[in-house]
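Incident log, entry 3
Record: Phosphatidylglycerol lysyltransferase C-terminal domain-containing protein (307 residues)
Problem: checksum mismatch between cached and fresh output.
Input:
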Amino acid sequence: MHATIPQFPQFRSLYLQDHDVLVGFLREHPPYSDYNFTSMWTWDVDGSKQISQLHGNLVVIFSDYVSKDRFISFLGSQKVPETVETLLTYSQQHNLGGTLRLMPEVVVSSLPPSRADLRIEEDEGSHDYILSVELMKSMAGSKLGPKRNFINRYKRQYEKRTVVKKIDVQDPFVQQQIIALFCTWQKKAKKTCAETEDEFQALNRAMSHASDFDLHALGIYIDTELVAFSIDEVVHDGYGVIHYEKANNDIVGIYQYLKQQSAYMFAELGCRYINYEQDLGIPGLRKAKRSHAPIDMLKKYTISCAI
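Fresh output:
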């Protein structure tokens, strides 16, 4: 880990300038969505995320995606048992919940199985869904039959008027189109500004700094109107990540068509897998993500003291 990252127990805010150092470290590990630099930085809209290093491991103080409660987590393979003990003590002493959360399976598997003093629990709502690019392109198989039907319904009604193209999210006109579509999605989803404020700010941060990340964006237009977009990233080990996607909910089949077109783009970029991130334990989101026939999960756990 680079000297610019403070040694534990010192922490500091996450800076855009940390990109190269942290991406170099993160590439040594499976591409968990929580430990994706683009996600970490763009969603840190209130500047509350804190980073440190301990025994060469990356330590992060996160805020819960729903409750905003702060907690501690880490990624790395060095002195894992010692790091767990130190961070559990720190979490208890500094009002961070007393539990290590979003702990990647690759870290947890480094712990000796005989640690009866630890309570290690699978955190199903935090698992990342892994989709197959080829399967999303073909939408083959019985599990994806409903999505094929929606795509066919979309094509029958709109294909002749549809243009699918890569878009430059740093172009001011494209940004205006994306913001307008975001507002349309918000209204049709009957969400308040307060409910979508963090995502709206994160989206704007991503667009404003797209050149600092390996972002690729796709737009779907009916006539000249942007009706769907996806802002994605190519990471390592053949993975792509879907960071932001929105569509006009009134258009039947648009989300299924968007997912298929995004898969075509990922394939062109050399990706074999898509990290579709977690469902946060929200039933509707879980149902939607499972409907994409995931081929794997990047699992995460919580670790706390058993006593």
